[in-house]
Amino acid sequence: MANREPAPDTVTQVDPSVPLVEARDVSRSFGAVRALSGVSLDFRRGEIHGLVGANGAGKSTLLNIIGGVITPSSGSILVDGEERSIERPADADALGFSFIHQELALIPDFSAIDNMTLGVKEVGRLGFVDRREASRRAKDVADLLGMGFSLRKPVRQLSPAERGLVAIGRALVRDVRFIAMDEPTAVLSDVECQRLFRIVRDLAATGVTVAYVSHRLGEIEDLSDRITVFKDGRVTGRFERGGYTRDDLVRGITGSTVGLGPRAEISRVDRDAPIVFSASHLSDGDRVRDVSFDVRAGEIVGIAGVVGAGRTETFGAIFGERKLTSGEMTLDGKPYRAANVRDAVRQGVALVPEERRSQALIMTDSVRSNMTMGAWGSTVANRFSPFVSDRKANGVTDRMVKALSIKARDPQVAVGTLSGGNQQKVVFGRWLSRGARVMLLDEPTRGVDIGARQQIWQTMEDFAAAGNAVVVVSSELEELSICHRVVVMVEGRTIGELQGPGVTEEQMLSEIYNDHVKEEIV
Ligand SMILES: Nc1ncnc2c1ncn2[C@@H]1O[C@H](COP(=O)(O)OP(=O)(O)OP(=O)(O)O)[C@@H](O)[C@H]1O
Ligand SMILES: [Mg+2]
User: What pLDDT is stored for residue 121 in this prediction?
Assistant: First the structure.
């Protein structure tokens, strides 16, 4: 791993009580949208500073300003007590700042190792960039992060979680004083998260400043020395470790504390309700090895497992994206197989994919057209017309914008101008508005704030309660505790089932990790 000794001049010349980075009265507007209004905060040396706030509150905008991705409309950024203009990412790089951006920004055709070492200024004795040294570091970092996959493969062949680790690794390979992590755990599962937390704490202990954004309040509370809360582009709370409660955070984020968090109550499912979907001994000869489970009408079944357990691939096989080599499925009692995605959709199966933003959105198109993309049935003017009816498309969009509280000035703005979490909600809304018999949801609340989580679960519940089947993969075990049942997957196999609702995290963990792996993560 990179040498973490601060450069000598920063020790001798700068008073350590001066914050490393300070934002003073920073504002930034995008047209009529005020993303940040008069925000002031500082980042001290060696602290872990948590940033929280609802989707669209301005967290990424602040980090993008410090990172030179965008410039402030007014206000200033001070580094070591001196005003600095950070006009481009290279300026931030030269200051020793490193970023894990919300959009991973990797080069798809480059290998993991090349992505990680790209631009590293490791100069060897002869004045050349020492690739070998950079690669060695990258491998150390990969070990620390537990990146158990080939670092030579182009990153486009990696799963979203693996790509997330590459982006994190990329930030860690550099010698830095300040590292900003914008939702680094959004794509990780529990084991990877635990490893990352250890690394974050080690970094801070060696004097590196960490700015840490997350919607998972538990990890914010565990990690942060200080927390700044954003709401609508302003700071609504500042807290020090030990000096606040969960309610204080929630109040700062949403303005109230009622009705938040995953619901504890879920409508009961009749034990004799008909089985809507069943899978038995599915295998694709690769990552799906032996998967069996069923879902009754009205049921929400969760699938728990670590990254790489084969959950996303199982969904892919059901949805006609992956070829099965053996196994049987039924839908409403009849044999089911999907030759391709279109075939799956036609038979009433919907999939909300794991990586929604990059795979599913056309960034320069409007919220409305992204929301209604491909939703011909519900939005065409009439069944003889190939044209989308504006009225119907607007109706669907308005309904979903309301149901999911999507923060957009109006439905005609480009979806790329929405905050990360709000973009996620647009894709979610697209699938929800279509209707289906079986809904497969891969990490449905990833990157989504606590208020919107509640709404997403409510829509899932309403869908199930109408007699349909829901299968949900989530790496946040707390969320899976709401499910009627939780199926546990390890290395491509379903190994057990827990009866809910109210399955505890401990129950799931002991199923998933067995005793020896559990030791590693606690
Ligand atoms: N390039 C842009 N053009 C127009 N509006 C933008 C742009 N970037 C951000 N915004 C707007 O600025 C506001 C703040 O967005 P920002 O991405 O900082 O939110 P966030 O707190 O990071 O949210 P999330 O938790 O969803 O990632 C939002 O209303 C967003 O739509
Ligand atoms: Mg953001």
Answer: 63
